[in-house]
């Protein structure tokens, strides 16, 4: 099959696909070229988040003998793919849902500890020649309530590690109401925020979740830990930009409603002009949740397995068309 | 009793001591003033690491009707106190061994994840206006071997969390040879380093451990994880400066023997002129292992309890004189 890879692929996966007899072309295209049908000669397109498969793009590459029959999202979120248009035009859409789970889990724990202990700030100050020991007093996670907004695979992985740190786990998820590990489930997002000094976001971006976390929601957080310590409020988002209203976040960090906020994802990326970057309690990484050697290797293996199923005429397990 | 506090104390502990009828004077003294006997009018001195209680200082404040009868180290390490001189001059020495354990445990895990995922670097680049997503590919901890040099309270706390992350725990400790949690014990430091892509240091500084970790030792590390992934080698030290030879560390980071190194402690502090700070894979914090609200509160409580015992004529449990 003819495979277009627009946002990169693991080198071993490319080799495996070629050994299976497929042709792999690695090239990034502009939106204009995509709307002009530049990938209509390919059977499969493999994308990450940088390529937008809108209804227009899908139509342009399937109409008039366009061959495109499959979109593979190397990663999880498919908010850059128009699923119903794909289905209408007989294009299968698959993602690699579990390959990056552990990478995001570890990054979330890293952001939580690093922000509460001011590791990035300490490193920055030292490089500026300042031994800022006294201003870097932080707070511990043990004994605090961690509120998980969304309780899917990644959230449950975060919960397991946070529990071993000694945090008490709370969650809100409209589709999950109980588990075997003593997680406290809430009936509303407001109730979750009212109970937790530490919040980590693990839901998808949708019309229901866009700007769900704003200044008013953050103001509900208790500032005093479950252990009675005045640790202030802390928030982490390694899920999707846009779930947090970044103006509200700026206001909450500036006013002390939040002591720290850590974002790996932003409403508009690249987010190098965000005014949040001027604040001390803010910590940022440039959407590197899945950026590990291990995750890229697992994603590559899943892509090979999806294409193998598709070549055999089977429907891959991660097919998202309804 | 008359209590001199030379490096700070938790505000609630000070209040508690005053309510018990003690007089508390907070003031930092120079080495010269200490050698001149400036605290000889006090019964107790409470110090952190910044005050050096050498033999000369102890003699000067106990001789000629000097009243000093107790040194309390707010924290763990007593390498700044001449223990045998204290004993000779009938000065009790106590520390607060467990109060900061969890603070150091969490910081160690934070340094481990943050360095392997380049969180500090990502934050720094974003503040410089760079969306350096592609250069920030990191590696995961799950599936890797974590080698603990020293297996005391802090190391065991780190092991518990690292195990929940999915790391396999290895250790070398001349005084501990087995545990209940499946830790792999090694007969030598060389054997430990040869087996682990990730090393965390948790021993005291002594003549045996000074510069124990040097370029040659680091060169033994395998670079390839237990899961077969080429993750490179990583080292963290939140214990004591001087255990790592910093010249050797610089050489190892520069040559690629190490991918990352994270230090909270340095041979000479404040370490703001360290040439390590010029390297990208390096991450530093200014000796903030115990710098949490929670640890300072627990240390304060322990100090009050030690002074209460001493006032009652009892020998406190954490007394270190032999």
Describe the overall structure.
- The structure is a homodimer of 322-residue chains.
- Chain A is an alpha/beta fold and 322 residues long.
- Chain A has two domains: 2-99 and 293-311, 3-Layer(aba) Sandwich (Rossmann fold), CATH 3.40.50; 101-284, NAD(P)-binding Rossmann-like Domain (Rossmann fold, 3-Layer(aba) Sandwich).
- Chain A has eleven helices and twelve strands.
- In chain A, α1 runs parallel beside α11 (293-311).
- Chain A starts with a strand and ends in an 11-residue tail after the last helix.
- Chains A and B meet through α5, α6, α7 and α11 of A and α5, α6, α7 and α11 of B.
Can you give the mean pLDDT of chain A? 96
Distance N to C terminus of chain A: 24 Å
CATH fold-level label of the largest domain in chain A: Rossmann fold
Q: Give the class of chain A from helix and strand content and strand pairing.
A: alpha/beta
Oligomer type: homodimer
Q: How would you name the CATH homologous superfamily of the largest domain in chain A?
A: NAD(P)-binding Rossmann-like Domain
Question: Unreliable segments of chain A (pLDDT under 50, ≥5 consecutive)?
Answer: none
Write down the CATH class of the largest domain in chain A.
Alpha Beta
The helix/strand order of chain A is EHEHEHEHEHHEHEEHEHEHEEH
Let me know the largest β-sheet of chain A.
7 strands, parallel
């Amino acid at each position: 099959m003819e495979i277009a890879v627009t946002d990169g692929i693991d080198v071993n996966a490319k080799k495996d696909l070629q050994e299976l007899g497929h042709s792999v072309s690695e090239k990034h295209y502009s939106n204009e070229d995509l709307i002009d049908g530049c990938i209509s000669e390919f059977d499969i397109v493999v994308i990450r988040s940088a390529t937008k498969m809108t209804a227009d793009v899908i139509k342009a590459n399937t109409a008039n003998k366009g061959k495109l029959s499959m979109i593979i999202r190397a990663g999880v979120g498919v908010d850059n793919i128009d699923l119903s248009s794909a289905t209408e035009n007989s294009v299968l859409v698959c993602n690699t849902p579990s390959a990056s789970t552990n990478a995001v889990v570890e990054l979330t724990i890293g952001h939580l500890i690093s922000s509460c202990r001011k590791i990035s700030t300490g490193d920055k100050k030292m490089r500026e020649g300042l031994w800022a020991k006294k201003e870097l007093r932080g707070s511990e996670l043990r004994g605090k309530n961690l509120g998980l907004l969304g309780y899917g695979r990644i959230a449950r992985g975060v919960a397991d590690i946070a529990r071993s740190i000694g945090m008490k786990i709370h969650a809100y998820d409209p589709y999950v109401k109980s588990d075997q590990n003593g997680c406290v489930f809430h009936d509303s997002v407001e109730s979750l925020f009212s109970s937790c000094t530490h919040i980590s976001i693990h839901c998808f971006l949708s019309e229901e979740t866009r700007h769900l976390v704003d200044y008013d929601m953050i103001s509900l957080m208790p500032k005093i830990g479950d252990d009675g310590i005045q640790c202030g409020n802390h928030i982490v988002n390694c899920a999707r930009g846009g779930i947090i209203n970044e103006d509200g976040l700026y206001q909450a960090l500036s006013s002390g409603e939040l002591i720290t906020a850590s974002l790996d994802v932003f409403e508009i990326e690249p987010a190098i002009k965000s005014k949040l970057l001027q604040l001390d309690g803010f910590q940022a990484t440039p959407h590197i949740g899945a950026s590990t050697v291990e995750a890229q290797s697992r994603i590559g293996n899943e892509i090979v397995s999806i294409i193998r199923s598709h070549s055999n005429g089977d429907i891959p397990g991660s097919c998202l068309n309804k």
